[in-house]
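User: Here's a chain of 565 residues. Predict its fold as tokens.
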Amino acid sequence: MTFEEIPLRIPNLTIVEKKAKKFLEEFQKATSAKEQAKVIRKFDRYYFNIQTDLTVISIRYTLNTQDPEYQEAQAKADELIPEIESILNIPFAKAMLSSPYYEELKKIFGEHFMNIYRAKVESFDDRIVEDLQEENRLLTQYNRVVSAAKIPFRGEIYNLSQLAKFTEDLDRETRKEASKAYWKFFEEHNEELGKIYDDLVHVRTKMAHKLGYKNFVELGYLRLGRTDYGAEEVKKYRDQIYHDVVPVTKKLFRQQAKRLEIKNPKYYDYNLTFKDGNPTPIGNRDTLVLKAQKMYDEMSAETGPFFRFMCKHHLLDLDARAGKSGGGYMTYLSRYEFPFVFANFNGTQGDVEVLTHEIGHSYQGYCARKIFPQVLQSPTYEACEIHSMSMEFFAWPWMKDFFGDQEKKFLFAHLSNAVTFLPYGVAVDEFQHFVYENPDVTHQERLAKWREIEKKYLPHKEYRKGSFLDLGGFWMKQRHIFESPFYYIDYTLAQVCALQFWARIQKKDEKAFEDYKHICRIGGTLPFRKIVKEAGLKVPFESGCLKDTVQLVREWFENADDSQF
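Assistant: Prediction complete.
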């Protein structure tokens, strides 16, 4: 079966309700932990079959947000998802957590399994079903607005993904003009997107209050399944980024301005890393996939067949096109044991980065596909991103195939981007904490707060005084802020772990890739901190972790001669 052959199924709520009652009755009638464990496994398989149908709807919609059939299916899914949780997942979870055989079940499935379901129960109640449906409706509305972007630029029409390549053009005037066109879209939709976000903040806050939380922060963490750290650890981590990483990134940005020979660089200049142009991959989409196949064949005995599997079943949709949603992602279709990769190639180095990144996610899903219960196949997001970001670094030895004589430029740019991303990532997180701790502030106050935080972590950013960006509009391009509250810090936590893998690669540590494959295979059977330990890495929250990790990166840049670029 290829992806195109997978049917579009909308779950029947009546059938789901009947199955839910049957599972619950069978579970409660069981007279031993062993019997209940059998029911849990059957329930798990059924639940993830339903999730597969909902995921197929989501994929097809993001592939073409303008298709009426997919729009209708997505609108129906927006309503169904909370209702399915209400009648299927949550009642069964409550029964598990209150089982007289709880301790024995915990021994069978592990404490982490029980903690996952406890977080689900604590973040859901029938009273918030309508609120969750409203949240989903708003997210679909947001996606439709940004995916429908038709931006005129030099006689052609582009969407946001397609236009992005011109923002890193060698010609400064082109960069400036493309950047202005890009941000003009957000300025023109400022009120509309601001209203959608305000509505999202308030509906999420309403849910938190209904569930007895002070604000959405604690609920947001629970929804992400974070069971072994909280907001306090994250705040201390952000402080470490500010003290240990920002000084390094300031220096990197100064070096970049020097390379570009621009005395007073503007925001649109930083998209260009080198004076003679950013590294660009050689070849089109098909060429890059062939090169990736060669890379994964040579990387390991496991990665080659896996990538061939992805190609054979048409599980890579990589080209940007009109009507397609922006960004990139990997998702998993449990019923078929298929990972699926979504991207928007636009002819930049980002094409190779997103390909290796999302394939890292996919490889983990493929490695863990036989884990049961299936809820343990995938870990929480910050651990998932270790797989993707580390794969980007494990791919370094093959970058000559992708970039030819621009290989060294790519390696320099890739590592530089990995480090300079960290302050931006925590800025997004700090902004979201402000928003949900102060849900009633106005859109203008949110814009102003973003600019204040941006100046703290990204002091190199300069905009024309009084412009949309100077007033704080940059955050509006970040889909995660709308779609996945508090997710974004996960990328930075994973990047710190990936940089530790990078350091081990530099030291020729042959066990590094074995440890990487190990954490791919164990999936989500452990919480974040324990997965990091299983990989032989330091947990980013630990005191001194940032300083030690960044020191290795600093030394690499000190030894790199960027004058050759």
